[in-house]
């Protein structure tokens, strides 16, 4: 009894100082995690903001060409291209999970294989999407859109095929680099690209009056310039641990990647296609041109703001998958 009493007396009771220590420890953990999050979130937000800005800038310059052209562009990018983005971005999200966990588990060479597998899956998916872009005019006419708008939209849609294939490289390289917290290069390339796009759009549409051809040529270049930079960055020695060159292993075990890609794609598609339905319904209104133009501008502004949320989503996904790859469930939950 006496021994137990001494033991109890020697035990220090929980005091206010202990609670303060725990609170300070929590604050340190939050601050440390916050810094790790911003390493990914900052460049990711800027990159998405700039990439989405390419579309907004193109729309602004096409607005100077004519009302029909502006309406057609709004239909193509809000309905057809956004449909493709929903599928491709959703499917590319599988790479975010796979690369993040592999990097956390220090299985570095696997990241390069995952990247190549994702290229294969997204390329094949894009090939299945091509008929939508080739037959845009009859599709829009069947959906009840005005004939004059549908014809111009068909021309813009053919140009947009180059943009869709640009998304394959853009989405996959971004997620591959984000998993390693090496995405500052993406932000630099995005800033350079949007600057070039503003200059070229002005030269080709305002100065030299090339119309839709000039606007779409500038847009395609703006999407491909960062892609070429990212590919060079990845393949020319900036990622020596995770990129070991092209490999035939990329063609093996594709089905698990396809399944994960499809499930990831379905979730994102349902969110993005909501705007598609709104634009299509607006096309049935009396003054369709003005209505579609106004709604598409509003949706673009709203989408531009959403890039901030998407940047944080990317950062959270990377941090969680990295910690799960390390096998530290508590850190992933935190």
TrEMBL record:
<keyword id="KW-0472">Membrane</keyword>
<dbReference type="GO" id="GO:1990961">
    <property type="term" value="P:xenobiotic detoxification by transmembrane export across the plasma membrane"/>
</dbReference>
<feature type="transmembrane region" description="Helical">
    <location>
        <begin position="294"/>
        <end position="316"/>
    </location>
</feature>
<feature type="transmembrane region" description="Helical">
    <location>
        <begin position="254"/>
        <end position="274"/>
    </location>
</feature>
<dbReference type="Pfam" id="PF01554">
    <property type="entry name" value="MatE"/>
</dbReference>
<dbReference type="InterPro" id="IPR002528">
    <property type="entry name" value="MATE_fam"/>
</dbReference>
<comment type="similarity">
    <text>Belongs to the multi antimicrobial extrusion (MATE) (TC 2.A.66.1) family.</text>
</comment>
<feature type="transmembrane region" description="Helical">
    <location>
        <begin position="74"/>
        <end position="98"/>
    </location>
</feature>
<dbReference type="InterPro" id="IPR045069">
    <property type="entry name" value="MATE_euk"/>
</dbReference>
<dbReference type="GO" id="GO:0042910">
    <property type="term" value="F:xenobiotic transmembrane transporter activity"/>
</dbReference>
<keyword id="KW-0812">Transmembrane</keyword>
<dbReference type="GO" id="GO:0015297">
    <property type="term" value="F:antiporter activity"/>
</dbReference>
<feature type="transmembrane region" description="Helical">
    <location>
        <begin position="119"/>
        <end position="140"/>
    </location>
</feature>
<feature type="transmembrane region" description="Helical">
    <location>
        <begin position="185"/>
        <end position="204"/>
    </location>
</feature>
<protein>
    <submittedName>
        <fullName>Protein DETOXIFICATION</fullName>
    </submittedName>
</protein>
<dbReference type="GO" id="GO:0016020">
    <property type="term" value="C:membrane"/>
</dbReference>
<feature type="transmembrane region" description="Helical">
    <location>
        <begin position="152"/>
        <end position="173"/>
    </location>
</feature>
<feature type="transmembrane region" description="Helical">
    <location>
        <begin position="37"/>
        <end position="62"/>
    </location>
</feature>
<keyword id="KW-1133">Transmembrane helix</keyword>
